[in-house]
Amino acid sequence: MAKSNEYIKYAASIVPSERQLAWQELEFYAFIHFGMNTFTDSEWGTGAEDPELFNPTNLDARMWARLIKLSGMKAMILTAKHHDGFCLWPSAYTDHSVKYSLWKDGTGDVVRECADACREYGLKFGIYISPWDRHDPRYGEGEAYNKFFKNQLTELLTNYGDIFCVWLDGACGEGANGKKQEYDWEGYYKLIRKLQPDAVISVTGPDVRWVGNESGVCRKSEWSVVPYWYSNAELIAAESQKDVSKPPKKISHTTLDIGSRKAIKKCNRLIWYPAEVNVSLRKGWFYHEREDYSVKPLSKLMEIYFNSVGANASFLLNIAPNMEGKFSEKDIETLLSVGAQLEIEFNEDLAASSTVTDNRHLDKAHCGQMALTENTGKYWHSGNDPEGAQLVLDLGDEYDIDKVVLSEHIRTGQQIEEFSLYIQLDGKWKRVAKETVIGHKRICRFREARTRYIKLVIEKARCFATIEKFEAY
Question: What is the pLDDT of residue 238?
Answer without folding.
Answer: 77
